[in-house]
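Amino Acid Chain and Its Fold in Token Form
===========================================
Scope: a single protein chain, as residues and as a discrete description of its fold.
Amino acid sequence: labelled as such and written in the usual single-letter residue code.
Position: the record begins directly beneath this header, with no further notes in between.
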Amino acid sequence: MSDSSLQVLLTGAGGQLGQELVAQCPAGVSLMATGRAELDLADPEACRRLVRERRPHWVLNAGAYTAVDRAESEPELAQAVNGAAPAALAAALGETGGRLLHVSTDFVFDGVQGSPYTPDQPLHPLGVYGASKAAGEQAVLASDLAEQGRAHVLRTSWVYGPVGRNFCLTMLRLHGEKEEIGVVADQVGCPTATPTLAAACWRLIGRAMEPPGASEPPEPPEAGAPLPAVLHWSDAGAASWYDFAVAIGELGEELGLLQRQARVKPITTADYPTPARRPSYSLLDCTASRAALGLEPIHWRAALRQVLGRLVA
């Protein structure tokens, strides 16, 4: 590992976002990619120890407990991974002089206001998953690291990609197996593709600092004001899960991934009860964050086309 490169420790490298972050790793970055085998995020001491040993310039915390419904019956594990691990990473980076990018979620909001959430709005999660992610955010933002401007929380929404377990791949499979699919139509947010989210993460790191000793950083830092502590990133537009499922069928058939698409029937949240309550409207206001990062979003349907295109043999 070159001393002049930007050294980034990535958690959750085996997940859908983590794999895309590895694939998009910019030139000039030495990536220390860790999955479950290398780092147990449920063990705060292991998190602290790894940061102290590796002393990265950045930790990109893309690892998380994301089983929203199962979290209701595993609150301690969800809290350890989503709450205690970010706190431990921030504390260790405070000792070593590194920086932290912590990926969070729209589920820290309750969705009752019916308009897009800005980064500075108060949190009010509905379930264990959202509460554990809120706890992680709060620990990071209350740390000495954040006080020194060296910690950032990036909230996103409805993440999916060409790998892993996600709504898009599940719906693609169900379109091929069933005549009709019932999908919730009264929850609104924005699907966010891992390729665009990974690009935003790397842009944030590039804009936040110039790598020590590197003549050409992955992205030049923005001149002037520092990046805010909390940012929002999603693809553009808004959708219900029903809208998303319909688009997956339409584009899947158009791209040859499906011989035919299933009928998608709109249903209500009450028709599809789940252990965890979900926000009915969790759209994120990304205006200020997009300006800070200098990135133009693409519409979620265009991003979906790109993701499905990668599945075409």
In short: Residues 210-224 have pLDDT under 50 and may be disordered. Residues 75-96 form the longest helix (22 residues). The domain at 6-161+191-236+277-297 is CATH 3.40.50.720 (Rossmann fold).
